[in-house]
Specification:
Layout lengths: L2 E7 L9 E7 L2 E7 L12 H4 L1 H5 L9 E4 L2 E4 L2 H18 L5 E5 L9 H10 L4 E3 L5 H11 L15 E5 L3 H4 L1 H12 L3 E5 L12 E3 L6 H14 L5 H6 L1 E2 L1 H8 L4 H8 L3 H13 L3 E5 L9 H14 L10 E2 L23 E3 L3 H7 L6 E5 L3 H4 L3 H9 L3 E6 L11 E4 L8 E3 L6 E5 L12 H9 L5 H4 L3 H8 L1 H5 L4 H6 L2 E2 L20 E2 L16 E4 L20 E6 H6 L7 E5 L4 E9 L6 E3 L33 E6 L4
Parallel strand pairs: 6-15, 7-14, 8-9, 8-12, 9-10, 11-21, 12-13, 15-16, 16-17, 22-26, 23-25
Antiparallel strand pairs: 1-2, 2-3, 4-5, 4-17, 18-19, 19-20, 22-27, 24-25, 24-27
Bound molecules: ligand MGD (2 copies) and molybdenum atom (MO).
């Protein structure tokens, strides 16, 4: 059998954005593996990749357009589907206002060509779009305050680190590219410390695991800085020469003793001292922050206290050091193509408050289109989101499966996977720009978002300026990168580093802040958490086995696991493996209790991403809220009670 090997890149919502090789026989991908030539993943790939073909060729995948008639989906043609969508949109624009049309773009895939999606709605008029983010906004917002711009170290630079502090990150599940770099630090005699309230799969891979009270890390960062200051081990030159607000920051650091901090973050003093020893003696220290840290209302205090600790530790602008959080995955593209400048005055809904925004909308939403997202499973207060989306007169969903959002659609449009597409993708975990060379033709009648929007665009009077061939749009969108000397051919042959990306950010100690200096935090406020009468903090974190809500129904036969400290479980009358109820003011779900002897007693852990259809949606319990900085989503500001289930 003749085989083809196609170089492509994973576009799934994950910081790794691995370079992959698709082995193709007879227009079918028979194997998907890591590409050894890719400088970041170097041939590695994760469990999600090895199972991805099961998703591409899954019998639950939708392969032709569907329309709901009398509550049941029936197959229709693309012509019918697109005509109906275009007619309804034109009518609403005429008899009401484009404001009654909502576009919601999820985080499913963030490739170059996706920029034309929102452009379509901007050309249509002052349609409603979303603001805020359900992923990394808080980290970006906070680091922008300190550094002027959030720029992270290239993962390859960890080859120069002598220690690493993984703070609220779970690379064993979410970050395959970090694992070998962690191992190499340990091999060189350095230490890798994990700071995470949860016992994750990453903990056994680290030299030490510190488990602070969830959401209280700013106290831990301040305690570490206080020890450095007490011992005269702070980076005096950097703090005095390259920072502003040093006196104010020092006052915050000295506002508590190490013992008081230890109590506030619930970490034994000995552990804080041990971590301080590593920061003092194993320089440079790379502080590597995850996304878990973001999901708190006051997450900026944590981020900013860690940035400041990085400054005190002498990590900033230093090879092998840094406080790295993430990368701008849209960096290589021309943002004008989104076309938001065409609609400067328009309504925007907070993504994370979608249920509430839809309920109070005036004018109300008549048509909504959702692409690459599953808001019913992934937004907080899922019950409210589901109810509000169900009430929209005409809902169009473009995706792969009839997930919790898909099943609400009036028209469902089946979309290709990245293996069926030509495109370009950048990452939020590194600076490498990767190609999507089309490996196979579309499965069934699926079409890419790009082709859907082009064909929809043909039906409108702005078609002339909107409808262009794919290669032409790619050239337009990639213009800034092409101007930096990179050709598209180079990208399609394997990819390239973003030429703008520094290997060691801020090596020149110049910061794009208004003062040109690193801005240390000068205020500190961390109010007491809410709902203290509910005993457990609910940590709804990423699962190692699956990605966000990309699961199928047949994989969701069991109830969600809920990890609880063994003694707490026994206190509640539970046995390991018992069914239980987890509930609060937002909802109630059934779970299977899984005992963990060493887990913190004040929290329970339930993986995110399950579907309500399978009684596995943890977001039926989460609080809809916007973080104080960066318009992020504080999913973990949620507390619950756990009850034994009787009589079932
Ligand atoms: N297998 C898999 N991979 C994924 C995903 C997935 O669902 N599954 N999701 C993808 C997405 S969308 C993203 S954004 C990334 C996320 O990547 P990560 O940030 O690595 O993963 P998370 O589970 O979101 O959070 C990491 C850890 O933060 C911890 N954490 C939460 N709150 C706190 C706190 O207050 N203090 C401290 N110190 N730690 C805290 C959690 O316990 C969790 O273990 O991964 C991507 N990759
Ligand atoms: N409780 C709780 N909830 C959370 C989080 C948490 O920590 N706790 N984390 C949050 C985070 S970090 C994130 S990023 C969000 C993710 O929230 P979403 O982006 O809504 O979730 P996904 O499950 O990634 O949904 C993406 C969907 O798009 C589809 N898809 C993939 N590629 C394409 C494409 O090219 N076109 C189209 N049309 N569809 C495509 C996929 O099949 C999938 O169904 O969830 C958030 N939700
Ligand atoms: Mo995310």
């Amino acid at each position: 059998m003749k085989q083809k090997i196609i170089k492509t890149t994973c576009t799934r919502d994950c910081p790794n954005t691995c370079g992959l090789l698709a082995v193709v026989e007879n227009n079918r991908v028979v194997k998907l593996t890591g590409n050894k030539e890719h400088p970041i993943n170097e041939g590695r790939s994760c469990i999600k990749c090895s199972h991805y073909l099961e998703r591409v060729y899954n019998k639950e995948r939708v392969l032709h357009p569907l329309k709901k008639v009398n509550g049941k989906f029936k197959r229709i043609s693309w012509e019918e589907a697109l005509d109906e969508i275009a007619d309804k949109m034109k009518k609403i624009c005429k008899v009401k206002t484009p404001e009654s049309i909502l576009y919601y773009q999820g985080f499913g895939a963030r490739t170059a060509l996706k920029l034309v999606n929102r452009r379509f709605f901007n050309l249509l008029g002052n349609t409603t779009i979303t603001k805020g983010t359900i992923c990394g906004g808080t980290g970006q917002g906070s680091q922008d305050l300190d550094f002027g711009n959030r720029i992270s170290h290239d993962p390859r630079d960890y080859g120069n680190s002598n220690s690493m502090i993984l703070w609220g990150r779970n690379p064993a599940a979410t970050g395959i590219n970090l694992l070998s770099r962690m191992t190499n630090i340990k091999k060189r005699g350095g230490r890798v410390i994990l700071i995470d309230p949860v016992n994750t799969e990453t903990a056994p891979l680290c030299s030490m695991h510190i488990k602070p009270k969830a959401g209280s890390d700013s106290y831990l960062a301040l305690a570490l800085s206080r020890i450095l200051h007490d011992e005269g081990a702070e980076d005096k030159e950097f703090l005095k020469e390259h920072c502003i607000n040093y006196e104010e920051y020092k006052k915050i650091v000295y506002s508590h003793t190490v013992d008081e901090y230890s109590e506030l973050c619930d970490v034994p003093v000995e552990q804080i001292l041990e971590a301080a020893e590593v920061i003092k003696h194993m320089k440079p220290t790379a502080f590597v922050l995850g996304w878990g840290l973001h999901r708190w209302e006051y997450a900026h205090t944590t981020l900013r206290a860690i940035d400041a600790l990085g400054a005190a530790a002498g990590s900033i602008g230093v090879s092998g050091g840094g406080v790295s959080q993430g990368f701008e995955e849209y960096a290589p593209y021309d943002w004008n193509i989104w076309g938001d400048q065409l609609q400067p005055k328009r309504r925007k809904f907070y993504m994370q408050l979608l249920g509430e925004e839809l309920n109070k909308a005036d004018p109300k939403i008549e048509i909504a289109m959702i692409t690459a997202g599953n808001p019913v499973s992934m937004l907080p207060d899922a019950n409210a989101v589901k109810k509000a989306l169900s009430q929209i007169p005409f809902l169009v969903v473009a995706g792969h499966f009839l997930d919790d959002t898909g099943i609400l659609a009036d028209i469902f449009l089946p979309v290709t996977t990245f293996l069926e597409e030509k495109d370009i993708v950048a990452a939020y975990g590194h600076d490498f720009i990767g190609p999507l060379n089309q490996a196979i033709s579309p499965v069934g009648e699926c079409k890419s978002d790009f082709h859907i929007f082009m064909e929809l665009g043909k039906r409108f009077d702005f078609a002339n300026e909107y409808v262009k061939p794919l290669d032409q749009w790619l050239k337009i969108i990639m213009k800034p990168t092409i101007e930096r000397g990179i050709s598209l051919e180079e990208i399609f042959q394997g990819g390239t580093n973003n030429p703008e990306a520094p290997k060691v950010p801020y090596e020149d100690k110049k910061f794009p802040t208004p003062t040109g200096k690193f801005q240390l935090m000068k205020e500190f406020e961390l109010p007491k958490g809410r709902d203290q009468d509910y005993p457990y903090q609910l940590m709804s974190i990423a699962s190692r086995e699956w990605l966000c809500s990309e699961v199928t129904l047949s994989e969701q036969k069991e109830l969600l696991p809920m990890k609880i400290n063994q003694e707490e479980g026994i206190k509640l009358g539970l046995k390991d493996g018992d069914k239980c109820i987890v509930e609060n003011q937002f909802g109630s779900i059934e779970c299977i209790a899984k005992f963990d002897k060493t887990q913190r007693r004040d929290l329970v852990v339930i993986p995110r991403g399950g579907w309500g259809q399978a009684k596995r949606n943890v977001n039926e319990l989460t609080r809809p809220l916007v973080s104080k900085v960066g318009a992020g989503t504080p999913y973990y500001e949620t507390r619950v009670i756990v009850r034994k289930m009787y009589g079932r």
